[in-house]
């Protein structure tokens, strides 16, 4: 599968708007996980990346790393392994607000679930 590029047709967009090309790339299986594992200036070998990604198949990891290199997000440094490029680090920084939002969302959902559970407990006790 070709690397999505801004200005070209991509999944979900006939116009190839830059954000749609990026979402197409980020939506590929395992890509976000690889990006996450390379955070904090990590330099990981192929084997280390595979282990951190729950042992994904080597074929898929190779394909994603190739796509990420072609997109300028990851580079292979000798020695040391794979690392994020400056644009890759900028992308990761751009995604951090989504992480913070998701943590707030998780807390909201947990509170909502706890609130829904409380009346059910009261009803159960009253029925006894």
**Helix content range of the residues, please?**
55-70%
Strand-residue fraction? Answer: 5-15%
CATH homologous superfamily title: Winged helix-like DNA-binding domain superfamily/Winged helix DNA-binding domain
CATH architecture: Orthogonal Bundle
Instruction: Tell me the domain tally.
Output: 1
Can you give keywords for this protein?
128 residues; mainly alpha; Arc Repressor Mutant, subunit A; 2 strands; 6% strand
What do you see in this structure?
This protein is mainly alpha-helical and 128 residues long. It has one domain: Arc Repressor Mutant, subunit A (Orthogonal Bundle). Helix content is 61%, strand content 6%. The protein has helices at residues 18-26, 31-37, 46-52, 58-70, 86-127, and strands spanning 74-77, 81-84. The chain has a two-stranded antiparallel ribbon. The termini are far apart. 15% of the residues are buried.
Record the SSE blueprint.
Elements: H1 18-26, H2 31-37, H3 46-52, H4 58-70, E1 74-77, E2 81-84, H5 86-127
InterPro entries: ArsR-like_HTH, HTH_HxlR, WH-like_DNA-bd_sf, WH_DNA-bd_sf
Protein name: Transcriptional regulator
Domain HTH hxlR-type: 17-110
Question: What's this model, at a glance?
Answer:
Residues 17-110 form the HTH hxlR-type domain. With 128 residues, the chain is mainly α.
């Amino acid at each position: 599968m070709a690397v999505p590029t801004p200005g070209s047709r991509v999944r979900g967009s006939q116009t190839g708007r830059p954000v749609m090309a990026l979402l197409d790339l980020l939506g590929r299986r395992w890509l976000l996980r690889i990006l996450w594992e390379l955070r904090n200036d990590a330099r990981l070998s192929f084997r280390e990346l595979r282990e951190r990604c729950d042992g994904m198949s080597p074929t898929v990891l190779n394909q994603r790393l190739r796509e990420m290199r072609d997109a300028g997000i990851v580079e292979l440094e000798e020695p040391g392994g794979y690392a994020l490029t400056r644009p890759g680090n900028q992308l990761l920084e751009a995604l951090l607000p989504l992480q913070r939002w998701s943590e707030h969302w998780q807390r909201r959902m947990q509170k909502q679930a706890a609130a829904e559970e409380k009346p059910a407990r009261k009803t159960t006790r009253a029925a006894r």
